[in-house]
Amino acid sequence: MPIPATQFIWFNGKLVAWEKATVHVLSHALHYGSSVFEGVRAYETQHGPAIFRLHDHTRRLFDSAKIYRMPMPFSVEQLNDACREVVAVNGLARGAYIRPVAFRGYGEIGVTPKNEPPTEVAVAAWEWGKYLGQDSAEEGVDVCVSSWNRVAPNTLPALAKAGGNYLSSQLIGLEARRLGFAEGIGLAADGTVSEGSGENIFVVKDGVLMTPALVHSVLHGITRDTVMRLARARGIEVRECAIPREFLYLVDEAFFTGTAVEITPIKSVDRIAVGTGKRGPVTAALQSAFFGLFSGQTADQWGWLDPVDMSQARIAVAQ
Ligand SMILES: Cc1ncc(COP(=O)(O)O)c(C=O)c1O
After folding, report:
1. Cα(309)–Cα(313) distance, rounded to whole angstroms?
2. Are 58 and 24 a contacting pair, CB within 8 Å?
3. Which of 98, 93, 106 has the alpha carbon at shortest distance from 80?
4. From atom 16 of ligand 1, which residue's Cα is the shortest distance away?
5. How far is residue 313's CA from residue 89's CA, in Å, rounded to a whole number?
6. What is the pLDDT of residues 234-280, one digit of tens each?
7. Alpha carbon of 75 to those of 8, 98, 111: distances in Å?
8. Known catalytic residues?
9. Is 211 touching ligand 1 by the criterion CB < 6 Å?
10. Does residue 45's CB lie within 6 angstroms of at least one atom of ligand 1?
11. Cβ atoms of residues 294 and 45 within 8 Å
12. Where does the chain show beta strands of DSSP type E?
């Protein structure tokens, strides 16, 4: 299904009609992968829609741009406002997936031209359900370890959420789907577990929660950080450590985290059941803590919810 269109996209500082937010075919990013982006979710809460950890996502966007020496023509606060604005003007009161993207645009040809192509910035938002299928949050997903490794250290920086990195993700995801799995897990250059094609991975063994450390070529996921904090606040021991591939076959529970997948249980790896092959108690407890942030059952002691003033929706429609 194509992306369900909304009315407006914020593009280089202005709201433009969805179908008019287009770029030139000779834009630098299209040829050389020079884009950085974010995936952010807004959730419906008792007090109206709120964007989850907006500031952290925008900061990561700027960090990705910094790694690639991409000048950003807007401030963090301007982009935070743009994210709130696209939710409001498109009337996305029931929640949304928000996609900020910055990229090297149309200018001189060449990988590193003398004159830097202009950085273009856009923010779109639309309604989006469960990334790995409607029942995945309860039922879990069957996954495989990919024959493709993740990017090695000091090749493409894993801490930058850059368009080019997602060529590695495409190889992993395409192979997994071709073989009948919902998702694939990439190993790091040293053969230990890294992450899924678009999500971080956690395992639970004897009550201890483990996830690969940042040195294992993972994106420093915001949901990963959220889960670690929620777990620690509940007295669960959390370790960031190297995880051997075969440990995935021996753990009691495993799950993916990410803005798109939220917290999705893994029921088998390489056709070997994880634990009982069903969502385990630690995964269920962390899911309920996570979704409780939006229903109000989990206190937002960190100030992670950024409310959206929906009155802007009326202003845009009146224009
Ligand atoms: C490769 C990769 N790893 C991990 C994640 C999870 O990150 P986050 O929780 O910030 O969405 C994502 C999604 O953005 C991703 O693309």
Report:
1. 9
2. no
3. 98
4. 198
5. 4
6. 999 999 999 999 999 999 999 999 999 999 999 999 999 999 999 99
7. 21, 18, 26
8. 161
9. no
10. no
11. yes
12. 8-11, 14-17, 35-37, 40-45, 48-52, 95-104, 119-126, 141-145, 183-187, 193-196, 200-205, 208-211, 238-240, 253-258, 262-269, 272-273, 305-307
- Nearest CA to 169 among 199, 141, 198, 130? 198
The pLDDT assigned to 315 comes to 56
Tell me, using a 6 A CB cutoff, whether residue 264 lines ligand 1: no
List all residues 6 or more positions away from 271 whose beta carbon is below 8 Å from its beta carbon.
142, 144
What is the atom index within ligand 1 of the atom nearest the CA of 158?
Answer: 1
Q: Give the pLDDT of residue 132.
A: 75
According to the model, what pLDDT value does residue 6 have?
A: 98
CB 70 within 8 A of CB 63: no
Query: Parallel, antiparallel, or unpaired: how do β-strands 183-187 and 141-145 relate?
Result: parallel
Q: What is the pLDDT of residues 78-124, one digit of tens each?
A: 999 999 999 999 999 999 999 999 999 999 999 999 999 999 999 99
Alpha-carbon span 280 to 265, nearest angstrom:
8
CA distances to 134, 135, 204, 271, 303 from 129, rounded to whole Å, are: 7, 11, 26, 26, 24
Please identify every stretch of the chain with a pLDDT value under 50, giving residue numbers as ranges.
318
CA dihedral of residues 70, 59, 9, 32 (deg, nearest 10): 30
* DSSP conformation class of 113: -
Cβ 231 vs Cβ 281: under 8 Å: no
- Spatial CA neighbour of 109 closest among 22, 12, 29, 23: 29
Which residue type does 276 have? T
Neighbours of 114 (CB within 10 A): 7
> For residue 277, how far is its CA from the centre of ligand 1 (angstroms)?
24
Buried b (16+ CB within 10 A) or exposed e, 72-87: bebeeeebbbbbbbbb
